[in-house]
Amino acid sequence: MAACGSAGVPATVSGKQEFYQLLKNLINPSCMVRRQAEEIYENIPGLCKTTFLLDAVRNRRAGYEDPHPRVRAAACTTLGQMATDFAPNFQKKFHETVIAALLRTMENQGNQRVQSHAASALIIFIEDCPKSLLVLYLDSMVRNLHSILVIKLQELIRNGTKLALEQLVTAIASVADTIEEKFVPYYDIFMPSLKQIVELAVQKELKLLKGKTIECISHVGLAVGKEKFMQDASNVMQLLLKTQSDLNNMEDDDPQTSYIISAWARMCKILGNDFQQYLPLVIEPLIKTASAKPDVALLDTQDVENMSDDDGWQFVNLGDQQSFGIKTSGLEAKATACQMLVYYAKELREGFVEYTEQVVKLMVPLLKFYFHDNVRVAAAESMPFLLECARIHGPEYLAQMWHFICDPLIKAIGTEPDTDVLSEIMNSFAKSIEVMGDGCLNDEQLEELGEILKAKLEGHFKNQELRQVKRQEENYDQQVEMSLQDEDECDVYILTKVSDILHSLFSTYKEKILPWFEQLLPLIVNLICSNRPWPDRQWGLCIFDDIIEHCSPTSFKYVEYFRWPMLLNMRDNNPEVRQAAAYGLGVMAQFGGDDYRSLCSEAVPLLVKVIKCANSKTKKNVIATENCISAVGKILRFKPNCVNVDEVLPHWLSWLPLHEDKEEAIQTLNFLCDLIESNHPVVLGPNNSNLPKIISVIAEGKMNETINYEDPCAKRLANVVRQVQTSEELWLECISQLDDEQQEALQELLNFA
């Protein structure tokens, strides 16, 4: 038997019963017992935790079915944590045992709190459980949930009990959210009960239940789709409107608020343009919540100590016996409201136009709302969508709104302290540039932006140097290395956003932006040096790719900087770097002009070598390889004088189809159409011997969803198939080599294109 610490906490865990005792202690009312249990739990090896907990799942006399409710509740909580920590492998390995055990525990009516913990664990487990696994248990799981719902609804009516019901409706929402359209057969058995809960939950103590049930209804509606949901849409909308009306007379931190706000957004997604009639009723309280100012206070330390955690305040010590406090309870609702405004602007466009000015005046100042990161994220994310709405009002109105947005957005890029928020602000700025187009930045704005981007790039290099210094220090160990790698990932992510902004400028301004870009040129050249880490080389090459694609033929003046890095990086061990180099070689052929002919000739053998490599089609390498295949196709198509076309074409055809990179795949199919429509003898083959291969490529393109019916290429490909069908013998030979799924794909293409 292991030694015990104070209050009966085992100092170590060597057996199942001690593990179950530890689970009890993790939820012990005593802070000291809980703290000691947490320390021991953290030191148990991961494999032992898994083994003990799965024993608890399997053993009818332990864990989930242990007679003591605290053990069962703690086992459920721990399982939920493991489902989060080890997702999705935990779900893939233990789905059968875990789902059955949790449902069995939820069915046991002996203890509401245990039921609630089991439902909570099921919610967490489902979040990362693949749809293909969940559907294996769908019928029994959904019917179990419904039978429990009926019992809990009766308990609510008789006794007002709601604890397990709150988690149960969230579990139903999670199931619907995961299985989507497969929830349709079960819709009619759940919706009446869910609507009844909303109608019954009128007391103050049932606010949270009402909010979660409204959330569940909106998830179910989204899962089954508009056609099925329309039978209840009017009734549900009236319930929402009544709840919305009640909320207008309630406290700002009412727990229903965020659920209602999110539910309205899902209703918008379900109903589409039909939702527009409800927007005037929704928008006013939404803007009110998004505009709410947080309660702040400057208090003495003694006053802070006298406040309860339940009061919803957070404090920062300012020294001198004073603390700055902010009431956090309303901040989540504010952030949710801001996110929903973004959603409506994005989804409704024309329907949102009349609110654009009011919302932009709200959002721009929130770029500096440092009390909550998600508020600033939503403010930044809204900008390009608001500009799209403003465009409907006409160019003058759009220009006025951009004038209001642009300077604060640029300044936010320079001052934002949080990396995640900064990346969203930079992404929003790049999208806004694309909306506004050529000439949208004046000289002062370009100058400020250039200084900010230069500082970001210089900081990137400086941070890498500092990390190398830290690796030489005495206290360097694995934990320090993990921290340094996290810092590096953050830096690289910001580098990707620098690339996004430059892409937006190159694609809108074309070669006119190059004189401004030259202040950054030495830093971009430094990124692609052979001694730089591979992500630097990847993104440096991507920036030069954009220059070649959008600023040619002028781009050739920089060829001395990227010629050898682009060719040499075709041999790089990292597929991301090879992909960037291959894409650059392809756009050289497509957009680069005659100056790039010799470089294209040099590129072909390197591209072919990568394509023919034994492991070129593995999951890790396939995207880079497909970019190589596409690049060869672009050289054949746009620079045919650089290569022996008749010699390379049969190889290129044999490498098709492309499956993973949809954009490059459609480029190759367009080129294939060009060749077929011109009756190219090498592509068609002697006596049309290559047509079965070509038909197979077209079928695969449809199956892989490369072919979009709105794309002109779809009609061209369908015409190729129809042309082959004119020869019955040839057509029978082609389809004899296709399986049923490929034949169905071809028929679908012919039906719609």
UniProtKB/TrEMBL annotation:
Coiled-coil segments: none
Keyword hit for Cytoplasm: yes
GO cellular component, one term: cytoplasm
Alphabetical keyword list: Acetylation, Cytoplasm, Protein transport, Repeat, Transport
Xref: InterPro entries: ARM-like (IPR011989), ARM-type_fold (IPR016024), HEAT (IPR000357), IMB1_TNPO1-like_TPR (IPR058584), Importin_beta (IPR040122), Importin_rep_6 (IPR041389)
Compartments where found: Cytoplasm
Top-level taxon in the UniProt lineage: Eukaryota
GO biological process: protein import into nucleus
Pfam family, one: Importin_rep_6
Record-annotated Importin subunit beta-1/Transportin-1-like TPR repeats domain positions: 159-294
PANTHER family with a match to the protein in the record: IMPORTIN BETA
Protein name: Ran-binding protein 6 isoform X2
Protein species of origin: Tursiops truncatus (Atlantic bottle-nosed dolphin)
